[in-house]
Amino acid sequence: MARTPTGAAVLQPEVTQAITDAVLNELAEQGYGRLSMEAVAKRAGVGKSALYRRWRSKPEMITAVVAEFSVTRAADVDTGSLRGDLRETMQALIDWLTHPLFSRILPDLVAEGVRNPETAESTRTSIGGPRREVGEAMLRRAIARGELPADLDLEMALDVLAAPIYWRLVVRRAPAEPDYLDRLVEYALRALGA
Fold first, then answer.
1. Could you list the residue range(s) of the whole structural domain that residue 28 is in?
2. pLDDT (tens digit, 9 = 90+) per residue, 128-140?
3. Are residues 33 and 111 part of one domain?
4. Band of the pLDDT at 12, cuts 50, 70, 90?
5. CA-to-CA distance for 102 and 118, rounded, in angstroms?
6. Among 97, 110, 95, residue whose Cα is nearest residue 31
7. Are 149 and 143 a contacting pair, CB within 8 Å?
């Protein structure tokens, strides 16, 4: 077993988790612009140096924490059918967007992206990109099974799948009724040409 070099920082997982929780709570309560490294450190019960051992800056910290939170919630499932995969994927999307903390973080993160192109690019590459890769893999499996046309426009299809849920839950702040998911899956299947 390799030994940690003398003087090297050892990142303790429980400290990283406390910091992660603090970042998410501060983002939900204070927003991107008002979040401070000092407040995160205080909330996590650590010194600011513990944050800087993990991330070089506030934007890097926020991006890393929100990406970890978001990408791990993308449904990477293979139920054997497009209908089943869509249902699992869309349910995971609903759960992500309605998470008690994240539902308060996302609108502010989007607004910050409008003000700051670097934030928008960081969000697109670290969160949107990996989540879309999971969705694309689902669609490619359905194409391989013959459930979708081989010439499916994958970019458009991914937009069609996520946009109604985002619009309803984040923009309109409308509830998802008990049958919403089943109705949406049927619409999506028709829209994709399944």
1. 13-54
2. 999 999 999 999 9
3. no
4. confident
5. 21
6. 110
7. yes
Q: What pLDDT was estimated at residue 13?
A: 84
Total-model pTM? 0.87
> Do 85 and 153 lie in a common domain?
yes
* One domain for residues 80 and 20: no
Cβ atoms 44, 19 nearer than 8 A: yes
- CA 112 to CA 140: how far, in whole Å? 33
1 within some domain: no
Given this model, what pLDDT does residue 9 score? 54
CA distance 137 to 167: 23
**Percent of the chain at pLDDT exceeding 90:** 89
Q: Are residues 90 and 169 in the same domain?
A: yes
Rounded to whole angstroms, the Cα distance separating 142 from 150 reads: 9
